[in-house]
Each structure stands twice: as structure tokens, then as C-alpha cells.
């Protein structure tokens, strides 16, 4: 859990360690692929 500029009450159901980059990259892969596919369709010839 990240806190910016304040205090938070720690809850025993809240994980105290942030997932690794590898774990995060494996989350929501289907959604990430659909977003990437939609983004590719927006690219037009000549765009950089």
C-alpha cells in the first residue's frame, strides 16, 4: 500500500508488500492485449 501525504489505517486484509513487476505484468493480460489491439487500429500511415 502506498500513502502520499497522510496516515492510513493498516488493515490485516491489505497486503503489506507490493507485488513484483513480474507479478504485475501477468495481471489483466487479456485486457492489456485488447487495449493494445485498439491502439494499433488508431495508428495511421505516416504517424510516428
Automatic annotation (TrEMBL):
<protein>
    <submittedName>
        <fullName>AgaR family transcriptional regulator</fullName>
    </submittedName>
</protein>
Amino acid at each position: 500500500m502506498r500513502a502520499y501525504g497522510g496516515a492510513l489505517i493498516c488493515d490485516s486484509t491489505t497486503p503489506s508488500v507490493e507485488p513484483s513487476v513480474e507479478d504485475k505484468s501477468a495481471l489483466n493480460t487479456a485486457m492489456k492485449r485488447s487495449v493494445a489491439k485498439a491502439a494499433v487500429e488508431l495508428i495511421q500511415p505516416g504517424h510516428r
